[in-house]
Design goal:
- This protein has 417 residues and is an all-alpha fold.
- It has one domain.
- The longest helix is centred in the last third of the chain and has 33 residues.
- Belongs to the glycosyltransferase 87 family.
- It is found in: Cell membrane.
- One of its GO terms (molecular function) is hexosyltransferase activity.
- This is DUF2029 domain-containing protein.
């Protein structure tokens, strides 16, 4: 019996090491199964809702209600009210005929009102559908551009973070499309890459490490285009909405920091950062910030080394995508759509040059993690999403080091022979 168990564990371990278990047929099968299950769940969720309110008393598309309500306030000439919780909540309830719904705060810089105005020009259900369809199409197009293979669209569509993002009506698709598109076009069209990075400023917490990478890589054209894009967005928002809305945004940042982040108003299990993990485990606010800052500095140092090196661009891009998620204290599970960018670039490099031990299994774990991260963290206190992000970043660096060592090792062996 002992030999049988040893044989089983040896087979499992060998499979994890080699990644042979993840055949193309299984990849397609798992993706189709998950797509089918999630499609049925979404259909049931909508069918059982009472109009636009689901069985839990939340709006269909939950977080999208804050975008729609902010757009309505802008149409009414009061965009600054979106940054005042009581007035924003009243606007959200008005969207649903005065029915009581949870409060979903508006925390975006004023230039994101452009999206809010567009989606709120039509009825709520249509606005949600247009928003998700358009941003999902952009996400798929970028994923296909990064990894032009037959199975890319299916695997990208079935990525569990997709369904988390759909359920919240959130902007993970847009974030992934902007960052992934910027990295895809960085070498060929650096100015376009800069424009996409500038547009990503609507989620400024994800831009902490991007300047580090661009400066280390001497990507001056992209840096210039990004700075010009941000300046243009700010100028246009000042011209169209007035300076008062920017003051309201700045005044609201204390509420966002204290209530939403530091006090865990969003829910520790939803936030996939080391800051949230530390707070969930009982650390004080200052200690949690110290841990987060230490991690961000380590990530910045690693990325600076990687981006100034001659490592393959796919590894630089993958590390920046996963590192950007790790560096911020406020990253939600729907933001893990961006992890697809890291997976795609890593997979492209592995498919071109061969995979090292455990890399295929790691990519599979990273692909599956968004499906389980919130539930595991809520039930056990273990931040699965954070662990997978850290492993992805570390494996990317390890691969870069090994790839740089390989030519030297070959040269040494040739000299010995």
């Amino acid at each position: 019996m002992t030999h049988i168990w040893q044989g089983i564990w040896h087979g499992i371990w060998h499979g994890l090491r080699s990644g042979d278990w993840l055949t193309p047929a299984r990849m397609r099968g798992y993706s189709l199964i998950l797509l089918g299950i999630c499609a049925l769940a979404i259909a049931g969720w909508i069918a059982l809702s009472d109009g636009l309110i689901d069985r839990n008393g939340k709006p269909v598309g939950t977080d999208f209600s804050n975008v729609y309500a902010a757009g309505r306030l802008t149409w009414q000439g009061h965009p600054a009210e979106a940054y005042q919780p009581a007035l924003q909540h009243a606007a959200e309830k008005a969207v649903f005929g005065g029915r009581e719904v949870p409060f979903y705060g508006w925390h975006y810089p004023p230039f994101f009102f452009a999206v809010a105005v567009l989606v709120s020009a039509v009825p709520y259900g249509w606005g949600l559908a247009i928003w998700l369809a358009a941003s999902f199409a952009a996400y798929l197009a970028v994923m296909r551009a990064i990894l032009p293979r037959a199975e890319t669209l299916l695997v990208a569509a079935a990525f569990p973070a997709v369904f988390v993002n759909v359920g919240h009506g959130q902007n993970g698709f847009l974030t992934a499309a902007l960052l992934g598109g910027a990295l895809h076009w960085l070498d060929r069209r650096p100015w376009l890459a800069g424009v996409l990075i500038g547009a990503l400023a609507y989620k400024p917490q994800f831009g902490v490490l991007i300047p580090v990478a661009l400066l280390a890589g001497a990507r001056w054209n992209t840096i210039g285009a990004a700075a010009a894009t941000v300046a243009a967005l700010v100028a246009v928002s000042f011209a169209t909405l007035g300076g008062g809305v920017w003051q309201a945004f700045l005044d609201s940042m204390n509420f966002t920091q204290v209530v939403v982040l530091e006090q865990g108003g969003t829910g520790w299990e939803k936030i996939q950062s080391i800051f949230s993990a530390a707070r969930m485990w009982g650390a004080g606010v200052q200690s949690a910030y110290a841990i987060q800052i230490a991690l961000a500095l380590a990530l910045a140092a690693a990325l600076a080394w990687l981006w100034q090196s001659d490592a393959a661009f796919e590894l630089k891009a993958s590390a920046l995508a996963s590192g950007s998620l790790l560096a911020t204290p406020y990253v939600l599970d729907y933001d893990l759509v961006v992890l697809a960018v890291a997976i795609a670039f890593f997979a492209r490099h592995g498919l071109n040059r061969g995979f090292h031990p455990y890399e295929i299994s790691l990519l599979a774990a990273a692909w599956m993690a968004p499906l389980l991260s919130r539930g595991v963290a809520g039930a056990t206190g273990l931040p699965l999403g954070l662990a997978v992000l850290l492993l992805t970043f570390v494996f990317t660096l390890r691969r870069a080091v090994r790839d740089r060592q390989a030519p030297a090792l070959k040269a040494h062996r040739a000299s010995v022979i």
